[in-house]
Input
Amino acid sequence: MQESLCYGITREFEGVMIMRKIIRLLLFILVTTIPYSTYAILSMELTRGVAGAIPIAVVPFAVQGSTPQDISGIIANDLQNSGRFKVVGKNLLSEFPSTADKASTEYFRKLGTDSVVVGRTISLGGDRFQVNFQLLDMFRGKGAASVVIDKNYTVPGSDMRKLAHHISDLIYEQITGTRGVFSTKIAYVVVQRSANSSTRYLLEVSDQDGYNPRPLLDSPEPIMSPSWSPNGRQIAYVSFENRRAGIFLQDIMSGGRRLLSEFPGINGAPAWSPDGTKLALVLSKNGSPNIYIMNIASGGLTQVTHDFYINTEPAWSPGGKILLFTSNRSGGPQIYQANLSNGAISRVTYDGDYNARASYTRDGKYIAMIHRVSGIYNIAILDLDTGTMRVLNSSVGDSASPSLAPNGSMVLYDTVYGGRNVLAMVSSDGRVQLRLPARNGEAQDPSWSPFLG
Output
């Protein structure tokens, strides 16, 4: 079997060759043991932004009483880290209006800020807070600023960061025309080695910016490939507890979970159908790894591929009529598609000798994937209309496990930076790049949630 598709041998299936590290989502490989601090917070760092980013001033909110969160600071970080905005914050401002009628159009026009965010936070006592914010357009009106958005909220202190992300989403959508993803979440796998050399694997969920990490599962055996349900309430993943691969379904809020698949051999790469009723997965219960579709309610299986090749990493089209998957049927790993209505299988990628882990953008016009360039595994986008492949990120280390934001604007992935695995993001046009290095360790196998609420 070709070396380009071989990565390791699982303890359970000795002798069965499986994918390289770059396509870890085969789900029957063993995770490399790496140190990680369980409760580390990911710290987002913008490494490349858009030239000519939209200037916007975020004025520190006026605060009456004390507040547990700096809402305006969170909004400023959100917008700055999107790479689409050049944020003028408190360190560059000399005027601090809290309402539109106090904002000097002359002052902000001289700063060159097209838009200005102002607001107030008032403590109501009993851990209740009233928040008012306004988005102002300083160039739309002839004299006074034009109020584009004016909202009032009353929330508990525990929801203030969530509210800040919601406000960022409103601002982002108003100015760019694209729904923001600041209120979404990410799931990822971490690995923790203690001083006595025992290893623990954790499945964590955090806010999109890395804050509020929460472990869903802590296990002495590998956990792989988290996959969000379309409604964002559940995650499917692979766990090697009991020394064999099984696919589990876990509820985000309650923590309750159930075993979906534990056939002999490989149980891997779960992918939700757009309607949330089915999972595409990889099974080797009849020999070679093939793609199947499972009805979640009944457990019934439909086999999609029927051959002796390695077929893995299924991903649904937005309409649910096509499955992308990785296969070595042409020699090296390439992307293929299976038409679920007639069973026809056709090759999708031809550029390069290594393409894997593909997924559609929300509009179905592009496919994000891992693409090898000069021996380095990078994130790339394939334009299905033109057949053009475009590499998005500039990385000195291999990149893996791409996951698209629900608005299609960004790709979340893991890569090697400074000798360790970190999470990173790149915009779908390649113009914005961020890193989310864990402060005390490493993270891998990320998955971006759908829109929540």
Remarks:
- Residues 160-176 form the longest helix (17 residues).
- The mean pLDDT is 87.
